[in-house]
Amino acid sequence: MRLVLSAVALCSAFTWQGAIGQTAGQGEAYPTRAVRLVVPFPAGGPTDVLARVLAQHISGKWGQNIIIENRPGAGSAVAAAAVARSEPDGYTLLMAMDTTLVMNPIAMKSISYKVEDFAPISLAASNTSILVVPANGPKTVEELIARGRANPGKMNYGAGIITTRLASFLFSKLAGLQAVSVPYNGSADVVRALLDGSIDYAVDGIAPHIPHIRDGTLRVLAKLDSKPVESLPDVRPLDQIAKMPELSDIATWVGVVAPVGTPQHVIKTVHEAVVEATNNADIRRKMAPLGITVTNSSPAEFAALIKSETKRWEPVIKESGFAN
To answer: Which of 25, 40, 54, 196 is found 20 to 30 A from 185 (Cα to Cα)?
Structure first.
């Protein structure tokens, strides 16, 4: 999914009550103590890796600790609900994904938070996803499709978040595969399932799979966007290999949000820190081999992206049957 926002989209960006912050507390210093950055996935996944790199950089600038708290569960809904209930003072922030702000509100009727519970601060990155199989699995996309068509209902695919689950669903549907979806709590679980043979293939972020691709225990068949990936220079886009334009430029994204009602001067301070960190050349170089394209945005641009992505994915989620 492209992170290019049109002028029309920006002009029509919806405004959440208090989402871009409040003016109360303008004179209060921030931060004066440790800040908690909640990551809604287990340690080791792309969002966790990015959060730790950004936290280390910003902590050095602020002179205050940024504590990473991993709270996996329910496709990021557990962490999101906890942050939504937190004091809106800037000392609890969330690394929110498209899963958190777009997919869950559409697909999960029982979640205990709303998109309007958060103040968008800045995008932080888009993550290239890959189609990956065990080492003893198919050697090409074509072979995977042929094997799946020859064994209807006998192959399964895993996903750690609903975004990659939807990408897998689209691929399987377009390829004519009757494959079974197996949900997991994050990328680390997906990697383990591939390694022990519990699943036949997965669409997932690059970072946790790289060591296993390098040692030959996993094989990458394709990537789901057209951006170059330093660590996988010869891997081609899935839409080109499979001749499926519907699969072009599908990437997950992650950004920083705070509880709604967070004071404007705090939003501004966090935003400036995130922008400075994500513009850092060393951080960008460090993330590139993992398929993570570091970026940033204004709060309004972030809000516009959430709105446009909701419009894009809502019909797909309804068709997939993943809503509950």
So the answer is: 54
pLDDT of residue 7: 36
Two tokens at 106?
A: 């559409």
Where are the CATH 3.40.190.150 domain residues in the chain?
7-127+251-320
Output the pLDDT for position 188.
87
Please, which residues bridge with residue 251 across strands?
Answer: 128
CATH topology of domain 7-127+251-320: D-Maltodextrin-Binding Protein; domain 2 (3.40.190)
Consecutive 10-residue runs of the chain (324 residues): their mean pLDDT? 38 40 58 97 88 97 98 92 98 96 91 96 94 97 97 93 87 94 88 96 91 96 90 94 89 94 98 98 92 94 94 87 78
Q: What is the pLDDT of residue 90?
A: 98
Asked if the 128-247 domain carries CATH number 3.30.470.10, the reply is no
Give me the pLDDT at residue 26, please.
Answer: 54
